[in-house]
Input
Amino acid sequence: MKNSNVVFDGRDIQLHEVMALARGLKKAELSEGDEFTTRIQKGVAFLEALLAEEGVIYGVTTGYGDSCTNFIPAELVDELPLHLTRFHGCGMGKHFSHELSVATLAVRLTSLSKGFSGVSYGLLKQFEMLINEDIAPLIPEEGSVGASGDLTPLSYVAAVLMGERQVYFKGNVRDTKDVFAEQNIQPITLKPKEGLAVMNGTAVMTAIACSAWERAEYLSRLTARITAMASIALKGNSNHFDELLFAVKPHPGQIQIADWIRNDVNHHEHPRNSDRLQDRYSIRCAPHVIGVLKDALPWMKTNIENELNSANDNPIIDGEGEHVLHGGHFYGGHIAFVMDSMKNCVANLADLMDRQMALLMDTKYNNGLPSNLTGAKGDRKMINHGFKAVQIGVSSWTAEALKGTMPASVFSRSTECHNQDKVSMGTIAARDCLRVLELTEQVAAAALLSVCQGVHLRIEMDDLDTAKLNQAVYTMVQNVLATVDVVEEDRPLEQDLRRLMSMIQTQSWSLYES
Output
């Protein structure tokens, strides 16, 4: 076993391992151990024995969904999985990214490796190959109601296993059959239960949730750092983050955020560092806003990883005890709730940073900084407008993020002849969360540039002694302004903001130690 690999042997996989596979930082390694391979084979052997005895198995000897009363003649059973993948090939909208597609493969492999889905070892090997060769199914974003799992988007995974449809490969979108031919890869033929096992699960919404969790966790750290720099630039009152203050309201995540900000602003108990007794809420209450997300992240992670490590197709095949268990484990309610909750917490970060930026821009509130944070000097100030339009953009992105917090999970719709009459909408919730994250990252990019400009201007005005600045904060200001120039004369800032946003999304700055 190689330490650099993520081993699939039925053990629990962590969300950070999924994302490492998705980014090509690790390889997938399917166990060849006797215990694991025997458990996988028992499920297949049990199904084959049932088929030989003409047993009734949903989705194997029957039609799907409301069509479960249609019994499939023995001579057509082998064709049924192919029909399942093909009639579900109706996804629409944009396509998931290459990274999210590989994450989906890793999540589905995790579930199938639990040994309760009745799939062959050869199918699992095909997943391993796709991950390690970085052949990622091209999956449309729209078309799942999140119960009976992610049927339509996962049909694109099942089709690629068989050499059909299209994939991302080496930076291009290609026909799967052509990539397989070039790489000498053999398509597989899905066995009777395998189409359903691949498709009837929560892999797409769970893959999104893995990615979203990492992005949200980083934003909680970045927003704390931005808050500290905003307080410094505004000459704020550091007593708002005092350790004694937060000891009396002991939410652990909130305490952690206050601790990070307190260290960043270099607070010492009761210093006389501000003319204001109380700063405005967007500074004073920042730990309470960011702390909601910070306190929610652990239970969010628990729910995501529980879903990741579950057998969530239907029926469940117990090869050891020889049971076929019909149920509803494909229902994505837990992921739906996490994603709806996360987008609420994240959008509140956007709103917080928007309000902090408003304070920095306005001479009525910014304690002597130039209007709109312009760096222009003398008469040049009259024609320069600094961050005026950026603030308008931040207001726009924040409004859209807040609009996106409407919970998707309450919009269940009855579908499929009233068989799927209560559904989770987990994948829509997860996609909404990605959009809220993206908008908040845009706000964070603008806010980061703004606070770095504000700190830089304070230093220029001799209002700030760099020797008294927290070293991590000062280093970050220098790094940001080495990447994006101080705004003196007006210039288009789009590319600067895009550069910072990319650095946020790739988590280029190390922020705090937990």
About this structure: The domain at 5-201 is CATH 1.10.275.10 (Fumarase C; Chain B, domain 1). The longest strand covers residues 5-8.
